[in-house]
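[SOLVED] Need 3D model of a two-part complex

Original post:
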Amino acid sequence: MINVSHISKNYGNTRAVQDISFKVKQGEVLGFLGPNGAGKSTTIRMLTCFIPADTGSARIAGYDVKTHSIEIRRQIGYLPENNPLYMDMGVLEYLYFAAGMRAIPPGKHKDAVRRVVERCGLGPMAARTIGEISKGYRQRLGLAQALIHDPALLILDEPTIGLDPHQIIGMRNLIREIGREKTVVLSSHILPEVAATCDRVLIMNNGRIVGSGTPAELSAMARGGQEILVSIRAQQDSIETVLESLPFITAFKHVDECDGLHCYSLRAANNDDINERIFHAVVQNGWSLTELQRKTINLEEVFVDLTTSEAT
Amino acid sequence: MNSTGVIFRKELKSYFNSPIAYIVILAFLGVTHWLFFRTFFLANQSNLRPFFSLLPWIFLFLGPAITMRAWAEEKKLGTIEVLMTFPVREREAVLGKFLAAFLFLIITLCLTISLPLTVVFIGHPDPGPIWGGYLGACLLGGCYLAIGLFASSLTENQIVAFILAIVLCFALLVIGEDFVLFSMPAALVPICTYLGLGAHFESIGRGVIDLRDIIYYLSIISFFLFLNQLALESRKWRP
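Solution:
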Protein backbone atom coordinates (compact mmCIF):
# COMPACT_ATOMS: atom_id res chain seq x y z
CA MET A 1 0.00 0.00 0.00
CA ILE A 2 2.73 2.43 0.97
CA ASN A 3 6.31 2.13 -0.17
CA VAL A 4 8.65 4.84 1.03
CA SER A 5 12.30 4.79 0.07
CA HIS A 6 15.00 7.10 1.36
CA ILE A 7 12.96 10.26 1.79
CA SER A 8 14.45 13.31 3.45
CA LYS A 9 13.11 16.75 4.25
CA ASN A 10 14.90 19.82 5.50
CA TYR A 11 13.38 23.03 6.81
CA GLY A 12 16.16 25.53 6.25
CA ASN A 13 19.00 24.12 8.29
CA THR A 14 16.80 21.84 10.36
CA ARG A 15 16.84 18.28 9.16
CA ALA A 16 13.29 17.23 9.87
CA VAL A 17 13.40 13.82 8.25
CA GLN A 18 16.58 12.06 7.23
CA ASP A 19 16.66 9.21 4.79
CA ILE A 20 13.81 7.05 6.02
CA SER A 21 12.37 4.02 4.28
CA PHE A 22 9.46 1.77 5.20
CA LYS A 23 6.60 -0.19 3.74
CA VAL A 24 3.03 -0.60 4.86
CA LYS A 25 1.03 -3.61 3.78
CA GLN A 26 -2.62 -3.56 2.85
CA GLY A 27 -4.78 -3.84 5.94
CA GLU A 28 -1.96 -3.12 8.34
CA VAL A 29 -2.16 -0.61 11.20
CA LEU A 30 1.16 1.16 11.44
CA GLY A 31 2.10 3.52 14.25
CA PHE A 32 4.75 6.20 14.22
CA LEU A 33 6.07 6.65 17.68
CA GLY A 34 8.47 9.30 18.78
CA PRO A 35 8.98 12.31 20.97
CA ASN A 36 7.66 15.67 19.80
CA GLY A 37 9.74 17.03 16.95
CA ALA A 38 10.94 13.59 15.84
CA GLY A 39 9.69 14.09 12.29
CA LYS A 40 6.43 12.15 12.47
CA SER A 41 4.20 14.95 11.22
CA THR A 42 6.64 15.88 8.47
CA THR A 43 6.68 12.28 7.27
CA ILE A 44 2.90 12.18 7.33
CA ARG A 45 2.63 15.46 5.44
CA MET A 46 4.87 14.05 2.75
CA LEU A 47 2.64 10.99 2.47
CA THR A 48 -0.51 13.09 2.19
CA CYS A 49 1.12 15.23 -0.54
CA PHE A 50 0.85 18.41 1.53
CA ILE A 51 4.59 18.99 1.24
CA PRO A 52 7.05 17.22 -1.08
CA ALA A 53 10.14 15.35 0.03
CA ASP A 54 13.49 16.93 -0.84
CA THR A 55 14.95 13.62 -1.91
CA GLY A 56 13.78 10.04 -2.16
CA SER A 57 10.51 8.68 -3.42
CA ALA A 58 7.24 7.45 -1.99
CA ARG A 59 4.53 5.43 -3.67
CA ILE A 60 1.03 5.00 -2.33
CA ALA A 61 -1.38 2.51 -3.87
CA GLY A 62 1.00 2.30 -6.82
CA TYR A 63 1.10 6.05 -7.46
CA ASP A 64 4.12 8.28 -7.01
CA VAL A 65 3.49 11.19 -4.61
CA LYS A 66 5.41 13.58 -6.86
CA THR A 67 3.58 12.93 -10.09
CA HIS A 68 0.15 11.64 -9.08
CA SER A 69 -0.70 13.67 -6.01
CA ILE A 70 -4.39 14.11 -6.94
CA GLU A 71 -4.92 10.35 -7.44
CA ILE A 72 -3.25 9.64 -4.11
CA ARG A 73 -5.24 12.30 -2.28
CA ARG A 74 -8.43 10.70 -3.62
CA GLN A 75 -7.55 7.46 -1.85
CA ILE A 76 -6.44 8.91 1.46
CA GLY A 77 -8.48 10.01 4.43
CA TYR A 78 -6.45 12.40 6.54
CA LEU A 79 -6.82 13.84 10.01
CA PRO A 80 -4.04 16.42 10.43
CA GLU A 81 -2.30 17.22 13.68
CA ASN A 82 -4.43 19.34 16.06
CA ASN A 83 -7.50 18.58 13.93
CA PRO A 84 -8.05 21.95 12.26
CA LEU A 85 -11.75 22.75 11.67
CA TYR A 86 -13.83 25.68 10.47
CA MET A 87 -15.29 26.81 13.77
CA ASP A 88 -18.22 28.75 12.31
CA MET A 89 -19.47 25.85 10.20
CA GLY A 90 -22.17 23.42 11.20
CA VAL A 91 -21.24 19.80 11.91
CA LEU A 92 -23.32 18.42 9.05
CA GLU A 93 -22.43 21.33 6.80
CA TYR A 94 -18.77 20.47 7.25
CA LEU A 95 -19.34 16.83 6.38
CA TYR A 96 -21.33 17.78 3.27
CA PHE A 97 -18.49 20.11 2.31
CA ALA A 98 -16.00 17.25 2.75
CA ALA A 99 -18.24 14.97 0.70
CA GLY A 100 -18.27 17.55 -2.10
CA MET A 101 -14.51 18.01 -1.99
CA ARG A 102 -14.06 14.25 -2.12
CA ALA A 103 -16.04 14.26 -5.36
CA ILE A 104 -18.71 11.92 -4.00
CA PRO A 105 -21.62 12.08 -6.47
CA PRO A 106 -24.21 14.58 -5.11
CA GLY A 107 -26.90 11.90 -4.91
CA LYS A 108 -24.82 9.91 -2.45
CA HIS A 109 -23.83 12.73 -0.11
CA LYS A 110 -26.67 12.06 2.26
CA ASP A 111 -25.81 8.37 2.65
CA ALA A 112 -22.11 9.09 3.07
CA VAL A 113 -22.77 11.69 5.75
CA ARG A 114 -25.27 9.47 7.57
CA ARG A 115 -22.78 6.59 7.54
CA VAL A 116 -19.92 8.55 9.14
CA VAL A 117 -22.19 10.33 11.61
CA GLU A 118 -23.38 6.93 12.78
CA ARG A 119 -19.94 5.36 12.79
CA CYS A 120 -18.28 8.17 14.71
CA GLY A 121 -21.20 8.69 17.10
CA LEU A 122 -21.83 12.26 16.04
CA GLY A 123 -25.62 11.96 16.08
CA PRO A 124 -26.27 14.08 19.18
CA MET A 125 -24.10 16.90 17.82
CA ALA A 126 -25.43 16.94 14.27
CA ALA A 127 -27.38 20.17 14.65
CA ARG A 128 -24.57 22.09 16.34
CA THR A 129 -21.93 24.49 15.09
CA ILE A 130 -18.39 23.15 15.28
CA GLY A 131 -17.33 25.93 17.64
CA GLU A 132 -19.93 24.75 20.15
CA ILE A 133 -19.02 21.08 20.44
CA SER A 134 -16.51 19.52 22.83
CA LYS A 135 -13.00 18.55 21.88
CA GLY A 136 -13.83 14.87 21.91
CA TYR A 137 -16.64 15.39 19.41
CA ARG A 138 -14.43 17.63 17.30
CA GLN A 139 -11.93 14.83 17.09
CA ARG A 140 -14.69 12.45 16.02
CA LEU A 141 -15.76 14.99 13.44
CA GLY A 142 -12.19 15.16 12.10
CA LEU A 143 -12.20 11.39 11.84
CA ALA A 144 -15.63 11.43 10.18
CA GLN A 145 -14.28 13.89 7.62
CA ALA A 146 -11.38 11.54 6.93
CA LEU A 147 -13.75 8.60 6.49
CA ILE A 148 -16.42 10.27 4.40
CA HIS A 149 -15.29 8.79 1.07
CA ASP A 150 -14.58 5.37 2.57
CA PRO A 151 -10.85 5.58 1.78
CA ALA A 152 -8.58 2.57 1.51
CA LEU A 153 -5.90 4.34 3.52
CA LEU A 154 -6.47 6.40 6.63
CA ILE A 155 -3.74 8.67 7.97
CA LEU A 156 -4.17 10.09 11.45
CA ASP A 157 -1.69 12.49 12.99
CA GLU A 158 -1.91 12.39 16.79
CA PRO A 159 -5.57 11.34 16.82
CA THR A 160 -5.97 11.32 20.60
CA ILE A 161 -4.01 14.40 21.56
CA GLY A 162 -5.76 16.64 24.04
CA LEU A 163 -8.59 14.23 24.83
CA ASP A 164 -9.59 13.09 28.29
CA PRO A 165 -9.03 9.43 29.26
CA HIS A 166 -12.62 8.46 28.44
CA GLN A 167 -12.44 10.04 25.03
CA ILE A 168 -9.04 8.47 24.39
CA ILE A 169 -10.47 5.01 25.00
CA GLY A 170 -13.41 5.76 22.74
CA MET A 171 -11.10 7.04 20.00
CA ARG A 172 -8.80 4.02 20.29
CA ASN A 173 -11.68 1.62 20.01
CA LEU A 174 -12.89 3.46 16.96
CA ILE A 175 -9.45 3.30 15.35
CA ARG A 176 -9.08 -0.40 16.15
CA GLU A 177 -12.46 -1.06 14.63
CA ILE A 178 -11.57 0.85 11.49
CA GLY A 179 -8.18 -0.88 11.36
CA ARG A 180 -9.91 -4.21 10.83
CA GLU A 181 -10.90 -3.26 7.31
CA LYS A 182 -8.59 -0.44 6.29
CA THR A 183 -4.92 0.36 6.17
CA VAL A 184 -4.21 2.88 8.91
CA VAL A 185 -1.12 4.97 9.59
CA LEU A 186 -1.15 6.92 12.82
CA SER A 187 1.32 8.83 14.87
CA SER A 188 1.57 9.34 18.56
CA HIS A 189 4.01 10.12 21.30
CA ILE A 190 2.05 8.01 23.75
CA LEU A 191 3.29 4.45 24.04
CA PRO A 192 0.32 2.51 25.36
CA GLU A 193 -1.73 3.99 22.59
CA VAL A 194 0.48 2.62 19.86
CA ALA A 195 0.83 -0.68 21.67
CA ALA A 196 -2.95 -0.90 21.94
CA THR A 197 -3.87 0.01 18.40
CA CYS A 198 -1.05 -0.91 16.03
CA ASP A 199 0.15 -4.08 14.34
CA ARG A 200 3.54 -2.59 13.77
CA VAL A 201 5.43 0.36 15.19
CA LEU A 202 8.13 2.59 13.75
CA ILE A 203 10.02 4.50 16.39
CA MET A 204 11.31 7.84 15.18
CA ASN A 205 13.80 10.18 16.73
CA ASN A 206 15.62 13.18 15.28
CA GLY A 207 14.18 12.50 11.86
CA ARG A 208 15.29 8.89 11.68
CA ILE A 209 13.68 5.53 12.22
CA VAL A 210 15.47 4.09 15.22
CA GLY A 211 13.45 0.96 15.69
CA SER A 212 10.64 -1.01 14.17
CA GLY A 213 8.62 -4.12 14.79
CA THR A 214 5.44 -5.35 16.39
CA PRO A 215 4.91 -4.10 19.91
CA ALA A 216 5.99 -7.59 21.14
CA GLU A 217 9.10 -7.67 18.95
CA LEU A 218 10.16 -4.26 20.11
CA SER A 219 9.96 -5.37 23.70
CA ALA A 220 12.19 -8.31 22.85
CA MET A 221 14.55 -6.13 20.90
CA ALA A 222 15.31 -3.96 23.86
CA ARG A 223 18.82 -4.68 25.03
CA GLY A 224 18.97 -7.58 22.63
CA GLY A 225 16.78 -10.29 24.11
CA GLN A 226 14.60 -11.20 26.99
CA GLU A 227 15.02 -11.10 30.69
CA ILE A 228 14.34 -14.12 32.92
CA LEU A 229 14.30 -14.25 36.67
CA VAL A 230 15.22 -17.58 38.28
CA SER A 231 15.61 -18.68 41.88
CA ILE A 232 17.80 -21.76 42.38
CA ARG A 233 18.80 -23.59 45.53
CA ALA A 234 22.48 -24.57 45.12
CA GLN A 235 26.05 -23.40 45.64
CA GLN A 236 26.56 -19.95 44.16
CA ASP A 237 29.85 -20.74 42.37
CA SER A 238 28.58 -23.99 40.87
CA ILE A 239 25.48 -22.18 39.55
CA GLU A 240 27.63 -19.54 37.99
CA THR A 241 29.98 -22.02 36.30
CA VAL A 242 27.01 -23.76 34.75
CA LEU A 243 25.35 -20.51 33.67
CA GLU A 244 28.57 -19.42 31.99
CA SER A 245 28.71 -22.67 30.04
CA LEU A 246 25.15 -22.39 28.73
CA PRO A 247 25.31 -21.00 25.15
CA PHE A 248 21.81 -19.46 25.09
CA ILE A 249 22.44 -17.25 28.08
CA THR A 250 24.11 -14.01 27.07
CA ALA A 251 24.50 -12.47 30.49
CA PHE A 252 23.48 -13.06 34.08
CA LYS A 253 23.45 -11.12 37.29
CA HIS A 254 23.19 -12.25 40.86
CA VAL A 255 20.26 -10.34 42.27
CA ASP A 256 19.58 -11.75 45.72
CA GLU A 257 20.42 -14.53 48.13
CA CYS A 258 18.26 -15.82 50.93
CA ASP A 259 18.73 -19.07 52.93
CA GLY A 260 20.85 -20.65 50.20
CA LEU A 261 18.33 -19.62 47.57
CA HIS A 262 20.03 -17.62 44.82
CA CYS A 263 18.11 -15.32 42.63
CA TYR A 264 19.50 -14.51 39.19
CA SER A 265 18.48 -12.23 36.40
CA LEU A 266 19.34 -13.86 33.09
CA ARG A 267 19.59 -12.31 29.66
CA ALA A 268 18.88 -14.74 26.88
CA ALA A 269 18.65 -14.70 23.12
CA ASN A 270 15.11 -14.92 21.78
CA ASN A 271 14.01 -18.47 21.99
CA ASP A 272 10.66 -20.02 22.57
CA ASP A 273 11.82 -23.00 24.66
CA ILE A 274 14.09 -20.97 26.90
CA ASN A 275 12.17 -21.83 30.08
CA GLU A 276 12.39 -25.51 29.26
CA ARG A 277 16.14 -25.37 28.66
CA ILE A 278 16.76 -23.64 31.93
CA PHE A 279 14.63 -26.20 33.69
CA HIS A 280 16.67 -29.06 32.12
CA ALA A 281 19.95 -27.48 33.14
CA VAL A 282 18.71 -27.23 36.71
CA VAL A 283 17.54 -30.86 36.75
CA GLN A 284 20.78 -32.16 35.24
CA ASN A 285 22.76 -30.57 38.03
CA GLY A 286 20.43 -31.84 40.69
CA TRP A 287 19.45 -28.39 41.94
CA SER A 288 16.01 -27.29 42.87
CA LEU A 289 14.20 -24.52 41.08
CA THR A 290 11.76 -22.40 43.05
CA GLU A 291 10.98 -19.64 40.63
CA LEU A 292 11.19 -19.10 36.88
CA GLN A 293 9.73 -15.90 35.52
CA ARG A 294 9.98 -14.46 32.05
CA LYS A 295 9.92 -10.70 32.29
CA THR A 296 8.71 -8.79 29.26
CA ILE A 297 10.37 -5.46 28.93
CA ASN A 298 7.64 -2.92 28.35
CA LEU A 299 7.49 -0.57 25.45
CA GLU A 300 8.34 2.44 27.59
CA GLU A 301 11.78 1.01 28.30
CA VAL A 302 12.42 0.30 24.63
CA PHE A 303 11.29 3.74 23.68
CA VAL A 304 13.42 5.55 26.21
CA ASP A 305 16.33 3.28 25.32
CA LEU A 306 16.07 3.91 21.62
CA THR A 307 15.38 7.60 21.74
CA THR A 308 17.96 8.53 24.34
CA SER A 309 20.88 6.54 22.97
CA GLU A 310 20.35 8.38 19.69
CA ALA A 311 20.52 11.75 21.39
CA THR A 312 23.76 11.13 23.25
CA MET B 1 -13.85 21.97 -11.73
CA ASN B 2 -16.34 20.46 -9.34
CA SER B 3 -14.07 21.36 -6.42
CA THR B 4 -14.20 25.02 -7.48
CA GLY B 5 -17.97 24.90 -7.14
CA VAL B 6 -17.82 23.23 -3.73
CA ILE B 7 -15.34 25.79 -2.41
CA PHE B 8 -17.37 28.60 -3.99
CA ARG B 9 -20.53 27.53 -2.16
CA LYS B 10 -18.74 27.02 1.14
CA GLU B 11 -17.07 30.43 0.96
CA LEU B 12 -20.24 32.25 -0.01
CA LYS B 13 -22.09 30.61 2.87
CA SER B 14 -19.35 31.51 5.28
CA TYR B 15 -19.57 35.17 4.21
CA PHE B 16 -23.21 35.28 5.15
CA ASN B 17 -22.71 33.18 8.28
CA SER B 18 -20.47 35.75 9.84
CA PRO B 19 -21.66 39.11 11.13
CA ILE B 20 -18.68 40.80 9.47
CA ALA B 21 -20.37 40.57 6.07
CA TYR B 22 -23.42 42.47 7.23
CA ILE B 23 -21.34 45.09 8.99
CA VAL B 24 -19.22 45.59 5.87
CA ILE B 25 -22.32 45.89 3.65
CA LEU B 26 -24.02 48.33 6.01
CA ALA B 27 -20.89 50.46 6.34
CA PHE B 28 -20.44 50.50 2.57
CA LEU B 29 -24.06 51.45 1.90
CA GLY B 30 -24.03 54.09 4.63
CA VAL B 31 -20.89 55.76 3.36
CA THR B 32 -21.84 55.67 -0.34
CA HIS B 33 -25.35 56.98 0.27
CA TRP B 34 -24.16 59.72 2.56
CA LEU B 35 -21.43 60.89 0.22
CA PHE B 36 -23.74 60.73 -2.80
CA PHE B 37 -26.77 62.50 -1.38
CA ARG B 38 -24.68 65.11 0.39
CA THR B 39 -23.92 66.80 -2.93
CA PHE B 40 -26.59 65.31 -5.21
CA PHE B 41 -29.28 67.91 -4.61
CA LEU B 42 -26.77 70.78 -4.58
CA ALA B 43 -25.24 69.77 -7.90
CA ASN B 44 -28.69 69.46 -9.40
CA GLN B 45 -27.54 66.93 -12.02
CA SER B 46 -29.38 63.69 -12.58
CA ASN B 47 -26.50 61.30 -13.08
CA LEU B 48 -24.44 58.89 -10.98
CA ARG B 49 -21.11 60.51 -11.78
CA PRO B 50 -20.28 61.46 -8.17
CA PHE B 51 -21.05 57.95 -7.00
CA PHE B 52 -18.86 56.24 -9.58
CA SER B 53 -15.99 58.65 -9.06
CA LEU B 54 -16.01 57.79 -5.36
CA LEU B 55 -16.16 54.04 -5.86
CA PRO B 56 -12.46 53.36 -6.56
CA TRP B 57 -11.66 54.94 -3.18
CA ILE B 58 -14.42 53.29 -1.22
CA PHE B 59 -13.67 49.92 -2.81
CA LEU B 60 -10.13 50.37 -1.56
CA PHE B 61 -11.54 49.38 1.84
CA LEU B 62 -14.43 47.18 0.79
CA GLY B 63 -12.39 44.80 -1.39
CA PRO B 64 -9.66 44.03 1.16
CA ALA B 65 -12.30 43.75 3.91
CA ILE B 66 -14.06 41.06 1.91
CA THR B 67 -10.94 39.04 1.12
CA MET B 68 -8.75 39.52 4.18
CA ARG B 69 -9.82 36.35 5.92
CA ALA B 70 -9.98 34.10 2.84
CA TRP B 71 -6.54 32.51 3.16
CA ALA B 72 -5.22 34.12 6.34
CA GLU B 73 -7.79 32.33 8.45
CA GLU B 74 -7.23 28.99 6.73
CA LYS B 75 -3.55 29.36 7.55
CA LYS B 76 -4.15 30.45 11.11
CA LEU B 77 -6.59 27.64 11.91
CA GLY B 78 -4.54 25.11 9.98
CA THR B 79 -7.56 24.17 7.88
CA ILE B 80 -5.47 24.84 4.81
CA GLU B 81 -3.89 21.45 5.47
CA VAL B 82 -7.29 19.79 5.30
CA LEU B 83 -8.27 21.81 2.25
CA MET B 84 -5.10 21.18 0.29
CA THR B 85 -5.01 17.47 1.06
CA PHE B 86 -8.43 17.11 -0.52
CA PRO B 87 -8.00 16.13 -4.17
CA VAL B 88 -8.07 19.75 -5.35
CA ARG B 89 -5.61 21.77 -7.39
CA GLU B 90 -4.40 25.11 -6.05
CA ARG B 91 -5.88 26.96 -9.00
CA GLU B 92 -9.32 25.44 -8.43
CA ALA B 93 -9.26 26.51 -4.79
CA VAL B 94 -8.15 30.04 -5.71
CA LEU B 95 -10.85 30.34 -8.34
CA GLY B 96 -13.54 29.09 -5.94
CA LYS B 97 -12.59 31.68 -3.34
CA PHE B 98 -12.38 34.43 -5.92
CA LEU B 99 -15.78 33.70 -7.42
CA ALA B 100 -17.40 33.67 -3.97
CA ALA B 101 -15.83 37.03 -3.09
CA PHE B 102 -16.86 38.37 -6.49
CA LEU B 103 -20.46 37.35 -6.09
CA PHE B 104 -20.47 38.88 -2.63
CA LEU B 105 -19.22 42.14 -4.15
CA ILE B 106 -21.89 42.03 -6.85
CA ILE B 107 -24.58 41.47 -4.23
CA THR B 108 -23.27 44.46 -2.31
CA LEU B 109 -23.31 46.58 -5.46
CA CYS B 110 -26.87 45.50 -6.21
CA LEU B 111 -27.90 46.97 -2.87
CA THR B 112 -26.94 50.43 -4.13
CA ILE B 113 -29.93 50.20 -6.49
CA SER B 114 -31.58 53.02 -4.53
CA LEU B 115 -29.11 55.46 -6.08
CA PRO B 116 -29.96 54.87 -9.76
CA LEU B 117 -33.64 54.56 -8.83
CA THR B 118 -33.56 57.98 -7.17
CA VAL B 119 -31.81 59.48 -10.16
CA VAL B 120 -34.27 57.93 -12.63
CA PHE B 121 -37.21 58.97 -10.51
CA ILE B 122 -36.10 62.57 -10.29
CA GLY B 123 -34.64 63.20 -13.74
CA HIS B 124 -33.87 61.61 -17.07
CA PRO B 125 -30.32 60.31 -16.88
CA ASP B 126 -28.44 58.77 -19.79
CA PRO B 127 -28.57 54.99 -19.07
CA GLY B 128 -25.22 54.30 -20.81
CA PRO B 129 -22.94 55.72 -18.12
CA ILE B 130 -25.00 54.03 -15.40
CA TRP B 131 -24.70 50.56 -16.90
CA GLY B 132 -21.11 51.26 -17.85
CA GLY B 133 -20.38 52.51 -14.37
CA TYR B 134 -21.73 49.35 -12.79
CA LEU B 135 -19.83 47.13 -15.21
CA GLY B 136 -16.66 49.09 -14.52
CA ALA B 137 -17.31 48.83 -10.79
CA CYS B 138 -17.57 45.05 -11.04
CA LEU B 139 -14.34 44.80 -13.00
CA LEU B 140 -12.46 47.21 -10.78
CA GLY B 141 -13.80 45.45 -7.70
CA GLY B 142 -12.69 42.14 -9.20
CA CYS B 143 -9.15 43.48 -9.43
CA TYR B 144 -9.22 44.61 -5.81
CA LEU B 145 -10.51 41.21 -4.75
CA ALA B 146 -7.81 39.36 -6.69
CA ILE B 147 -5.18 41.58 -5.09
CA GLY B 148 -6.80 41.11 -1.68
CA LEU B 149 -6.83 37.33 -2.03
CA PHE B 150 -3.18 37.36 -2.98
CA ALA B 151 -2.34 39.52 0.05
CA SER B 152 -4.34 37.17 2.27
CA SER B 153 -2.37 34.19 1.01
CA LEU B 154 0.89 35.75 2.18
CA THR B 155 0.10 35.94 5.87
CA GLU B 156 -1.91 34.32 8.60
CA ASN B 157 -2.84 37.65 10.12
CA GLN B 158 -6.05 39.15 8.75
CA ILE B 159 -5.12 42.71 9.70
CA VAL B 160 -1.80 42.42 7.88
CA ALA B 161 -3.66 40.99 4.87
CA PHE B 162 -6.14 43.89 4.98
CA ILE B 163 -3.50 46.61 5.12
CA LEU B 164 -1.23 44.97 2.58
CA ALA B 165 -4.14 44.68 0.18
CA ILE B 166 -5.05 48.35 0.63
CA VAL B 167 -1.44 49.36 -0.05
CA LEU B 168 -1.23 47.23 -3.20
CA CYS B 169 -4.60 48.38 -4.53
CA PHE B 170 -3.79 51.97 -3.73
CA ALA B 171 -0.45 51.74 -5.55
CA LEU B 172 -2.08 50.28 -8.64
CA LEU B 173 -4.84 52.89 -8.52
CA VAL B 174 -2.65 55.99 -8.23
CA ILE B 175 0.10 54.84 -10.57
CA GLY B 176 -1.94 56.15 -13.50
CA GLU B 177 -2.97 59.45 -11.87
CA ASP B 178 -1.64 62.69 -13.36
CA PHE B 179 -0.13 63.68 -10.06
CA VAL B 180 2.10 60.59 -10.04
CA LEU B 181 2.80 60.59 -13.77
CA PHE B 182 4.10 64.13 -13.50
CA SER B 183 7.09 62.98 -11.46
CA MET B 184 7.92 60.01 -13.70
CA PRO B 185 10.53 59.67 -16.41
CA ALA B 186 8.84 60.29 -19.76
CA ALA B 187 9.52 56.76 -20.97
CA LEU B 188 7.47 55.21 -18.17
CA VAL B 189 4.45 57.46 -18.54
CA PRO B 190 2.56 55.44 -21.19
CA ILE B 191 3.16 52.18 -19.31
CA CYS B 192 1.99 53.63 -16.02
CA THR B 193 -1.03 55.26 -17.61
CA TYR B 194 -1.98 51.90 -19.02
CA LEU B 195 -1.34 50.04 -15.76
CA GLY B 196 -3.29 52.44 -13.56
CA LEU B 197 -6.64 51.02 -12.50
CA GLY B 198 -8.40 54.39 -12.50
CA ALA B 199 -8.13 55.46 -16.16
CA HIS B 200 -9.83 52.33 -17.46
CA PHE B 201 -12.59 52.76 -14.94
CA GLU B 202 -13.26 56.31 -16.09
CA SER B 203 -13.56 55.35 -19.72
CA ILE B 204 -15.99 52.52 -18.98
CA GLY B 205 -17.83 54.89 -16.63
CA ARG B 206 -18.50 57.26 -19.52
CA GLY B 207 -20.48 54.45 -21.08
CA VAL B 208 -17.79 53.58 -23.58
CA ILE B 209 -17.24 49.87 -23.32
CA ASP B 210 -13.90 49.23 -24.92
CA LEU B 211 -12.68 45.67 -25.27
CA ARG B 212 -9.17 46.82 -24.36
CA ASP B 213 -10.34 48.02 -20.95
CA ILE B 214 -12.10 44.75 -20.29
CA ILE B 215 -9.03 42.78 -21.36
CA TYR B 216 -6.93 44.97 -19.10
CA TYR B 217 -9.09 44.21 -16.06
CA LEU B 218 -9.28 40.51 -16.80
CA SER B 219 -5.47 40.39 -17.15
CA ILE B 220 -4.96 42.12 -13.79
CA ILE B 221 -7.40 39.70 -12.15
CA SER B 222 -5.72 36.66 -13.75
CA PHE B 223 -2.28 37.92 -12.86
CA PHE B 224 -3.05 38.29 -9.16
CA LEU B 225 -4.98 35.03 -9.01
CA PHE B 226 -1.93 33.39 -10.55
CA LEU B 227 0.29 34.99 -7.89
CA ASN B 228 -2.16 33.67 -5.32
CA GLN B 229 -1.77 30.19 -6.76
CA LEU B 230 2.03 30.52 -6.62
CA ALA B 231 1.85 31.66 -3.01
CA LEU B 232 -0.11 28.52 -2.15
CA GLU B 233 2.29 26.33 -4.07
CA SER B 234 5.29 27.96 -2.44
CA ARG B 235 5.05 25.53 0.49
CA LYS B 236 6.25 22.89 -1.96
CA TRP B 237 9.29 24.82 -3.09
CA ARG B 238 12.73 23.85 -1.93
CA PRO B 239 14.17 26.19 0.68
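Edit: Residues 110 and 134 of chain B are 9 Å apart (CA to CA).
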